[in-house]
């Protein structure tokens, strides 16, 4: 229990835990758990972060001395290490008590990358083969470990992640000089290649093994260095395109160490900036935006006043208003307040009859935003197409007030 307290607390700064995109069904007697797309149960830590109930490090004893990390070698913190059998038993016993639906396992590098990866592999073998656990498992691929070890773990885990931590080689060299950019990219490349091979085997209808069916993810720390939003998002875009990344997570830096290269220990975590990066990332993944679309006119930062889609629309006001009854899907989803679901409803319903303003309101779009950028049957309902007017209206609508129970 003491180890669990230390190593679950040490894992809370790793936000790249997710269980989307996988379905591992339970087949046969004596097997435990199903892995479904709704994923791991979560709880909330004292600093407001969403963490899984069994989200742990295998060890927080680390040979590295990364400036930003709470578990760095020179930090005076309480240390602990789990044995592989202990992690397996904890997972099974927690599952039997209905505390968890899966395991998120990360680790510091205790002695070497290979030794750490071997222990992670032992845990996976115990859970899958000895305990017949079919629940969701997300593990870290340790940079510097042999590709054979990463491959073996990939056939047992549902998702793997390699945390890139910082978007540029210069930032990594400044805050984590013992880590090499090439050693972080190598396991990403290996996971991508194995995923592509597994997909090709499946298409060819030959016998194939499922390799990390939920794909790979990574994490970047926001605010520990002077890297701009542009650098962070272009790095994410590169990872999506080059390494078939399932998800890039952004972690607002929480000051835990004092150092000349880090922000002051009193610095507030940049949570709004993190939120805007997630919104921009969503546009990259699902709305066919590029990083060049998001950063208009050479800007290096995402607006904190306006969400990225609204900011893009305001800076491209010459493209609007869009006639709702004629625009194709790829143009509809670029309208602020219109998402994929409402865009498809618009296309479906206008096949029957032209949509007027009242019909548009019923499609599920956020009409308070959308009305400034569309026309319905040629009529504009946004009062004024002036950019300053739209900005004022938008900002006034974003002012929220805490409701009183007796109000």
Automatic annotation (TrEMBL):
Gene3D superfamilies in UniProt: Aldolase class I (3.20.20.70), Photosystem II 12 kDa extrinsic protein (1.10.150.320)
Keyword field contains Metal-binding: yes
GO MF annotations, alphabetized: catalytic activity; iron-sulfur cluster binding; metal ion binding
Key word Iron-sulfur present: yes
Keywords of the record: Iron, Iron-sulfur, Metal-binding, S-adenosyl-L-methionine
InterPro entries reported for this sequence: Aldolase_TIM, DNA_rSAM_put, Endo/Exo/Phosphatase_dom_1, rSAM, rSAM_sf, RuvA_2-like
NCBIfam families: rSAM_link_UDG
Protein name: Putative DNA modification/repair radical SAM protein
Organism per entry: Alkalibaculum bacchi
